[in-house]
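REQUEST FORM: STRUCTURE PREDICTION
Request ID: SP-0412
Submitted by: Lab K.M.
Chain count: 1
Length (residues): 217
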Amino acid sequence: MGKREREADGPTAANAPDEWVPLSSLTHWARNPRRNDDAVDGVARSIIAFGWGAPLVVRAEDRRIIAGHTRAKAAARLAALWRRQNARERGDWHPDAIRTKDSGEVPVRWKAGLSEQQADALAVADNKLGEAAGWETDLLAQVLSDVADAGLVADLGFSDGELDKLLGDAAIVDGAADTSVSALTYQVMVRCRDEPHQGEVMAQLEATGLDCRPLIT
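STATUS: Completed
RESULT:
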Protein backbone atom coordinates (compact mmCIF):
# COMPACT_ATOMS: atom_id res chain seq x y z
CA MET A 1 0.00 0.00 0.00
CA GLY A 2 1.19 3.55 -0.67
CA LYS A 3 1.89 6.34 1.73
CA ARG A 4 -1.80 6.72 2.56
CA GLU A 5 -2.77 3.81 4.78
CA ARG A 6 -6.39 2.93 4.16
CA GLU A 7 -8.83 0.12 4.70
CA ALA A 8 -10.57 -1.07 1.53
CA ASP A 9 -14.05 -0.71 2.94
CA GLY A 10 -15.47 1.72 0.37
CA PRO A 11 -17.68 4.56 1.58
CA THR A 12 -18.26 5.08 5.28
CA ALA A 13 -21.06 3.14 6.96
CA ALA A 14 -23.27 6.23 7.17
CA ASN A 15 -22.99 6.67 3.40
CA ALA A 16 -22.63 3.02 2.39
CA PRO A 17 -24.09 1.95 -0.95
CA ASP A 18 -26.83 -0.63 -1.23
CA GLU A 19 -24.70 -2.61 -3.67
CA TRP A 20 -21.65 -2.48 -5.94
CA VAL A 21 -22.72 -3.20 -9.52
CA PRO A 22 -21.03 -3.15 -12.95
CA LEU A 23 -21.09 0.35 -14.42
CA SER A 24 -21.90 -1.24 -17.76
CA SER A 25 -25.21 -2.50 -16.33
CA LEU A 26 -26.44 1.06 -15.70
CA THR A 27 -27.83 3.58 -18.17
CA HIS A 28 -27.34 7.32 -18.33
CA TRP A 29 -30.31 9.67 -18.55
CA ALA A 30 -30.56 10.35 -22.29
CA ARG A 31 -32.37 13.65 -21.69
CA ASN A 32 -29.93 14.94 -19.08
CA PRO A 33 -29.76 18.72 -19.64
CA ARG A 34 -26.72 19.13 -17.39
CA ARG A 35 -23.41 19.53 -19.23
CA ASN A 36 -20.69 17.95 -17.10
CA ASP A 37 -17.82 16.97 -19.42
CA ASP A 38 -15.50 19.69 -18.10
CA ALA A 39 -15.85 18.32 -14.56
CA VAL A 40 -15.17 14.64 -15.28
CA ASP A 41 -11.37 14.67 -14.95
CA GLY A 42 -11.55 16.58 -11.67
CA VAL A 43 -14.06 14.13 -10.25
CA ALA A 44 -11.87 11.22 -11.37
CA ARG A 45 -8.94 12.73 -9.47
CA SER A 46 -11.16 13.09 -6.42
CA ILE A 47 -12.17 9.41 -6.55
CA ILE A 48 -8.51 8.44 -6.91
CA ALA A 49 -7.52 10.57 -3.91
CA PHE A 50 -10.48 10.08 -1.56
CA GLY A 51 -12.62 7.22 -2.87
CA TRP A 52 -16.34 7.38 -3.51
CA GLY A 53 -17.76 10.15 -1.37
CA ALA A 54 -21.31 9.18 -2.36
CA PRO A 55 -22.81 6.29 -4.33
CA LEU A 56 -24.68 6.74 -7.58
CA VAL A 57 -28.44 7.08 -7.09
CA VAL A 58 -30.16 4.75 -9.55
CA ARG A 59 -33.83 4.12 -10.41
CA ALA A 60 -34.38 0.45 -9.58
CA GLU A 61 -37.01 -0.18 -12.24
CA ASP A 62 -34.77 0.54 -15.26
CA ARG A 63 -31.28 0.97 -13.69
CA ARG A 64 -31.14 4.54 -14.94
CA ILE A 65 -28.74 6.88 -13.13
CA ILE A 66 -30.60 9.68 -11.36
CA ALA A 67 -27.74 11.36 -9.49
CA GLY A 68 -24.06 10.87 -10.17
CA HIS A 69 -23.71 11.14 -13.95
CA THR A 70 -20.37 12.93 -13.64
CA ARG A 71 -19.09 10.34 -11.15
CA ALA A 72 -20.14 7.58 -13.53
CA LYS A 73 -18.24 9.16 -16.42
CA ALA A 74 -15.23 9.66 -14.15
CA ALA A 75 -15.34 5.99 -13.15
CA ALA A 76 -15.13 5.00 -16.80
CA ARG A 77 -11.83 6.91 -17.12
CA LEU A 78 -10.03 5.35 -14.17
CA ALA A 79 -8.46 2.49 -16.11
CA ALA A 80 -6.95 4.89 -18.66
CA LEU A 81 -5.63 7.15 -15.91
CA TRP A 82 -4.05 4.15 -14.15
CA ARG A 83 -2.15 3.21 -17.33
CA ARG A 84 -0.69 6.72 -17.58
CA GLN A 85 0.71 6.76 -14.05
CA ASN A 86 3.89 5.35 -12.60
CA ALA A 87 4.21 2.90 -9.71
CA ARG A 88 4.69 5.64 -7.11
CA GLU A 89 1.54 7.47 -8.19
CA ARG A 90 -0.47 4.26 -8.28
CA GLY A 91 0.53 3.62 -4.68
CA ASP A 92 -1.57 6.62 -3.64
CA TRP A 93 -4.79 5.37 -5.23
CA HIS A 94 -7.71 4.90 -2.84
CA PRO A 95 -8.95 1.27 -2.64
CA ASP A 96 -12.36 2.39 -3.95
CA ALA A 97 -10.74 3.70 -7.13
CA ILE A 98 -8.70 0.53 -7.56
CA ARG A 99 -11.81 -1.61 -7.09
CA THR A 100 -13.68 0.33 -9.76
CA LYS A 101 -10.68 0.27 -12.09
CA ASP A 102 -10.20 -3.49 -11.69
CA SER A 103 -13.79 -4.71 -11.62
CA GLY A 104 -15.74 -1.99 -13.41
CA GLU A 105 -18.07 -1.86 -10.39
CA VAL A 106 -19.48 1.32 -8.86
CA PRO A 107 -21.39 1.87 -5.60
CA VAL A 108 -25.13 2.28 -6.06
CA ARG A 109 -28.05 3.36 -3.92
CA TRP A 110 -31.32 2.14 -5.39
CA LYS A 111 -34.45 4.30 -5.59
CA ALA A 112 -37.54 2.17 -6.12
CA GLY A 113 -41.12 3.26 -6.76
CA LEU A 114 -40.35 6.47 -8.67
CA SER A 115 -42.19 7.23 -11.86
CA GLU A 116 -40.11 8.41 -14.81
CA GLN A 117 -41.29 11.96 -14.15
CA GLN A 118 -40.34 11.74 -10.47
CA ALA A 119 -36.90 10.41 -11.41
CA ASP A 120 -36.48 13.29 -13.87
CA ALA A 121 -37.50 15.79 -11.19
CA LEU A 122 -35.08 14.32 -8.65
CA ALA A 123 -32.24 14.43 -11.19
CA VAL A 124 -32.88 18.10 -11.97
CA ALA A 125 -33.24 19.00 -8.30
CA ASP A 126 -29.98 17.23 -7.44
CA ASN A 127 -28.14 19.51 -9.86
CA LYS A 128 -30.09 22.73 -9.38
CA LEU A 129 -30.23 22.81 -5.58
CA GLY A 130 -26.46 22.51 -5.42
CA GLU A 131 -26.22 25.82 -7.29
CA ALA A 132 -28.08 27.57 -4.48
CA ALA A 133 -25.22 26.97 -2.07
CA GLY A 134 -22.48 29.57 -1.79
CA TRP A 135 -19.06 29.94 -0.18
CA GLU A 136 -18.00 31.85 2.90
CA THR A 137 -14.87 33.01 1.12
CA ASP A 138 -12.68 33.89 4.10
CA LEU A 139 -13.35 30.56 5.81
CA LEU A 140 -12.87 28.68 2.54
CA ALA A 141 -9.48 30.35 2.08
CA GLN A 142 -8.36 29.23 5.52
CA VAL A 143 -9.52 25.66 4.90
CA LEU A 144 -7.78 25.55 1.52
CA SER A 145 -4.58 26.82 3.09
CA ASP A 146 -4.65 23.91 5.56
CA VAL A 147 -5.47 21.46 2.77
CA ALA A 148 -2.58 22.83 0.69
CA ASP A 149 -0.19 22.08 3.55
CA ALA A 150 -1.31 18.44 3.34
CA GLY A 151 -0.68 18.35 -0.42
CA LEU A 152 -4.34 17.69 -1.28
CA VAL A 153 -5.41 20.96 -2.86
CA ALA A 154 -5.01 19.69 -6.44
CA ASP A 155 -7.84 17.17 -5.96
CA LEU A 156 -10.61 19.64 -5.04
CA GLY A 157 -11.77 20.85 -8.45
CA PHE A 158 -10.67 24.49 -8.17
CA SER A 159 -8.84 26.07 -11.12
CA ASP A 160 -5.30 27.39 -10.68
CA GLY A 161 -6.65 30.93 -10.90
CA GLU A 162 -9.24 30.31 -8.19
CA LEU A 163 -6.62 28.75 -5.93
CA ASP A 164 -4.18 31.60 -6.48
CA LYS A 165 -6.83 34.11 -5.50
CA LEU A 166 -8.16 32.18 -2.52
CA LEU A 167 -4.81 31.13 -1.12
CA GLY A 168 -3.47 34.62 -1.63
CA ASP A 169 -6.40 35.99 0.38
CA ALA A 170 -5.77 33.49 3.16
CA ALA A 171 -2.62 35.32 4.23
CA ILE A 172 -4.57 38.47 5.12
CA VAL A 173 -7.78 37.02 6.52
CA ASP A 174 -6.52 37.12 10.09
CA GLY A 175 -3.79 39.46 11.23
CA ALA A 176 -2.63 36.83 13.68
CA ALA A 177 -2.40 34.19 10.98
CA ASP A 178 0.84 33.08 9.39
CA THR A 179 1.52 35.54 6.57
CA SER A 180 4.20 33.46 4.90
CA VAL A 181 3.72 31.86 1.49
CA SER A 182 4.71 28.39 2.71
CA ALA A 183 1.19 27.08 1.99
CA LEU A 184 1.44 27.94 -1.70
CA THR A 185 2.47 25.40 -4.31
CA TYR A 186 4.76 26.56 -7.11
CA GLN A 187 4.56 24.64 -10.37
CA VAL A 188 6.08 24.69 -13.84
CA MET A 189 4.15 23.44 -16.87
CA VAL A 190 6.18 21.87 -19.68
CA ARG A 191 4.50 21.51 -23.08
CA CYS A 192 5.33 18.16 -24.72
CA ARG A 193 5.03 17.02 -28.33
CA ASP A 194 2.96 13.93 -27.60
CA GLU A 195 2.29 11.29 -24.91
CA PRO A 196 5.60 9.37 -25.40
CA HIS A 197 7.53 12.63 -25.14
CA GLN A 198 5.55 13.48 -22.00
CA GLY A 199 6.65 10.16 -20.47
CA GLU A 200 10.30 10.85 -21.34
CA VAL A 201 10.20 14.33 -19.82
CA MET A 202 8.52 13.04 -16.65
CA ALA A 203 11.15 10.31 -16.29
CA GLN A 204 13.94 12.87 -16.63
CA LEU A 205 12.41 15.22 -14.08
CA GLU A 206 11.57 12.47 -11.59
CA ALA A 207 15.17 11.25 -11.81
CA THR A 208 16.17 14.59 -10.27
CA GLY A 209 13.77 14.04 -7.35
CA LEU A 210 10.94 16.25 -8.61
CA ASP A 211 7.30 15.32 -8.02
CA CYS A 212 5.62 15.17 -11.44
CA ARG A 213 2.06 14.47 -12.56
CA PRO A 214 0.89 13.97 -16.15
CA LEU A 215 -1.53 16.54 -17.53
CA ILE A 216 -3.39 16.22 -20.81
CA THR A 217 -5.47 19.20 -21.97
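NOTES: The two ends are 30 Å apart (CA to CA).
Reviewed by: T.R.
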